[in-house]
Write a structure and sequence with these properties.
Residues 27-143 form the Response regulatory domain. This is Stage 0 sporulation protein A homolog. The protein contains 13 helices and 10 strands. It is an alpha/beta fold and 324 residues long. The protein binds 3'-deoxy-guanosine-5'-triphosphate and magnesium ion (3 copies). 3'-deoxy-guanosine-5'-triphosphate (GH3) binds at residues 161, 194-199, 202, 207, 210-211, 214, 237-238, 315, 319.
Length: 324
């Protein structure tokens, strides 16, 4: 809808103005201690990009923390307070800013400097005095590469059918959250979710309807998990899984019950189900803490198995229920 609105806006403009309204202008941060340099670059780039300016490394580090972060940074190598190398290093230490491409600007145009610039993580190197068209082309290339990297990384982490995180993403986050829970001595919970008699659903309504049902269930799961750190993913087939950091067994059982009810209340017809005449879920819950690990029988690594055992009990005792 936003795109359509922008398109409309473009068509309403006189032709000469149309070019100026770019769809989502990308943000470029120019960092240089010389105002002359920042001005020159800003003037050249302002037509096509949103420009941010910093005259010191310290200011630059403050600006990159803003949301939305810049899409690309032009960074002077020699500045009095903090060198470009140092600024670059800091930006790459932060998870939220490490993917921003950095291009070094420098008068020190010898191969050795260029090599150490690239080594410190910059994507490119431009020497002063600037050849403006060349600068523009480099910026365009690196913004395009960044865009494709983002698409690639989202695609790798997302389930194509339901558009929720996939198993790969879940396993990655599980490893991170296990480390966090150990460090902070917190409880981590997992909920395994399986649609009841889904083979019969496909047999009755066909695979396309089955796909629609999976999408509806995934949406309901996503809506039911409200805490920022919670994650719901598609495990495989008609199975989903939730990761609940800093949540004990009681809390997780409560969330699981909410999920069960949410999908039941969708009232998606399932006439061949022996449970109810609508789509239902079976769920298994398990929790882990660091103190469990001392007893050797329980550990974070066994969480998935424990949740699976609980899920099997839900299936065996009649389905459409939560087992802990
Ligand atoms: P239970 O209550 O014991 O879980 O029975 P079930 O039929 O749900 O379990 P089963 O493992 O026998 O069958 C799972 C079915 O899920 C088999 C398959 O047809 C269906 N399925 C798996 N992935 C997809 C998918 O991407 N789309 C559709 N439409 N169906 C799928
Ligand atoms: Mg300088
Ligand atoms: Mg299954
Ligand atoms: Mg099933």
């Amino acid at each position: 809808e936003e795109l359509r609105a922008i398109e409309q806006l473009r068509n309403d403009q006189p032709k000469s103005d149309r070019q100026a309204i770019a769809i989502k202008r990308e943000r470029i941060l120019i960092v240089d201690d010389s105002p002359e340099n920042t001005q020159l670059l800003a003037q050249m780039l302002v037509e096509n990009y949103e420009i941010l300016v910093a005259n010191s490394g310290k200011d630059a580090l403050a600006i990159v923390q803003q949301v939305p972060a810049p899409d690309l940074i032009l960074l002077d190598l020699s500045m009095p307070d903090m060198s470009g190398y140092e600024v670059c290093k800091q930006i790459q230490l932060e998870e939220s800013t490490m993917a921003i491409p950095i291009i070094f600007l420098t008068i020190l145009s010898d191969p050795e400097n260029e090599a150490s610039g690239l080594q410190s993580g910059a994507v490119d190197f431009i020497s002063k005095p600037f050849d403006l068209p060349r600068v523009e082309e480099k910026i365009k290339n690196h913004l395009a590469l960044k865009h494709y990297r983002e698409i690639l990384s989202t695609t790798a982490d997302t389930d194509a059918l339901t558009q929720i995180p996939n198993r790969r993403r879940f396993e990655e986050m599980l490893a991170i959250e296990i480390r966090k829970a150990r460090r902070n001595n917190t409880t981590l919970s997992v909920i395994r979710i399986d649609i009841d008699y889904f083979k019969r659903y496909n047999d009755t309504y066909g695979h396309l309807e089955g796909d629609d049902c999976l999408r509806e269930v995934a949406d309901a799961l996503k809506k039911t998990l409200k805490r920022a750190g919670d994650l719901v993913a598609r495990w495989e087939g008609e199975e989903f899984i939730c990761l609940l950091p800093d949540t004990n067994l009681k809390g997780a059982a409560h969330v699981a019950e909410n999920i069960r009810k949410a999908v039941l209340n969708l009232r998606i017809p399932h006439q061949s189900s022996p449970v109810e005449k609508v789509v239902t879920l079976s769920l298994g819950v398990a929790s882990g803490t660091r103190s469990h690990e001392n007893q050797a029988e329980d550990s974070f690594e066994a969480l998935l198995d424990h949740a699976q055992m609980a899920l099997t009990k839900s299936k065996d005792t009649g389905r459409n229920r939560v087992f802990v």
